[in-house]
Amino acid sequence: MRMYDLIMKKRNGGTLSRDEIFFMIEGYTKGNIPDYQMSAMMMAIYFNGMNEKETAALTMAMAESGDQLDLSGIQGIKVDKHSTGGVGDKTSLALTPMVSACGVKIAKMSGRGLGHTGGTIDKLESFQGFSTSLSEEAFIDQVNRIGISIIGQTKNLAPADKKLYALRDVTATVDNMSLIASSIMSKKLAAGADAIVLDVKTGSGAFMKEEADAMLLAGEMMTIGKNAGRKMMAVISDMDQPLGNAVGNALEVKEAIETLKGHGPADFTELCMTLGSCMLMVAEIAENEQQAREMLKEAVDSGKALDKLAELVEAQGGDKRMVYETDLLPKASSITPLLSEKDGYVEKIQCDEVGICSLILGGGRETKESAIDLSVGIVLTKKVGSHVKAGEPLAYIHSNEEAKRLACEERLRKAFHIGDKVKKEGAIIHQILK
């Protein structure tokens, strides 16, 4: 079998067999197939696509290219949640303790942020002492003991995907549905969960700008998961404006905690309730959405969900006092209002621009080696549809450096589009797929 022949086959519109795909991925991972040949293959796939069987084989080849977690030592159905990412997406911080408090086992691997989208692992490190690096044995033991653990991805989890994504990123072949779906699902399958709930974002702050594309991606990932024997559900959710009000690591942690107390923003609370209901249903803890919502509400109202977050933080070496006393979380030295220059209504918030503003302040990474300032970020006081008067705050900028604050302020102001039209805020949930 030669890579040259496989490139020609796919270039000419042919279908690769499972054996050919495994040969290609194994060879590339081991360094036997050079970047220039794999680049040619990625471009051939980009233009000619992959069918369902090819996509499934590519996913499994990447999942099996490195470590695969065996979670059979954890009793019960293990449920994972994956978000395609966005601005202010702190969902796992509130969602997983809620679901765990209802009896679902959460053994979750999460990533760090890169660019204007934040990472769950970075946010969790806002809790002083919190460790995201546990041995597989300690990880499994903790889930059995308290029902939840969230750790960083191991370096050898789906290494083929890491190599391929880096290559696609510099060869303009990222934007292909099969390649995106297989990249995401290879890591999810390698992480060992029995059931997976997907949160696929759509809108200006999402990778998939159009809802139709988000639906296609969700459908492709669900098909891969079901073919691999996993229970699957997907939610198409809105990312046309930041999720909730807070953007920035410790600020988002604080908002997640307020949500666990029952005082979270309406859009963020609704997303957590919807995703949580899906997780309870695929775990067979709840028979229907109404029952699931009642269980989640009771977990919040009783304080069990908040206590579960404190239990998670303490179990992984963090200071659980920060869960109950959020003033102990990292705080910026300066909080400055961004004042509206005119009367009107917020017609649009350029979502990705808000994320970039947080990045400018130091709340995100421009490269993998960048250090993050956990304390900085933005808290919105106005969302789409809000009325605003001249001189009234649109947001508050939390910063530690004046030059960065000024750069952020100039750009953030342009992200708010204020006009005379009253625009109704869009629904946070677009579709639920089963």
From TrEMBL:
It is an enzyme of class 2 (transferase). It catalyses: 2'-deoxyuridine + phosphate = 2-deoxy-alpha-D-ribose 1-phosphate + uracil; uridine + phosphate = alpha-D-ribose 1-phosphate + uracil; thymidine + phosphate = 2-deoxy-alpha-D-ribose 1-phosphate + thymine. Residues 345-419 form the Pyrimidine nucleoside phosphorylase C-terminal domain. InterPro entries: Glycosyl_Trfase_fam3, Glycosyl_Trfase_fam3_N_dom, Glycosyl_Trfase_fam3_N_dom_sf, Nuc_phospho_transferase, PYNP-like_C_sf, PYNP_C, Pyrmidine_PPas_bac/euk, Pyrmidine_PPase_CS. Keywords: Glycosyltransferase, Transferase. It holds the Pfam family Glycos_transf_3. Catalyzes phosphorolysis of the pyrimidine nucleosides uridine, thymidine and 2'-deoxyuridine with the formation of the corresponding pyrimidine base and ribose-1-phosphate. This is Pyrimidine-nucleoside phosphorylase.
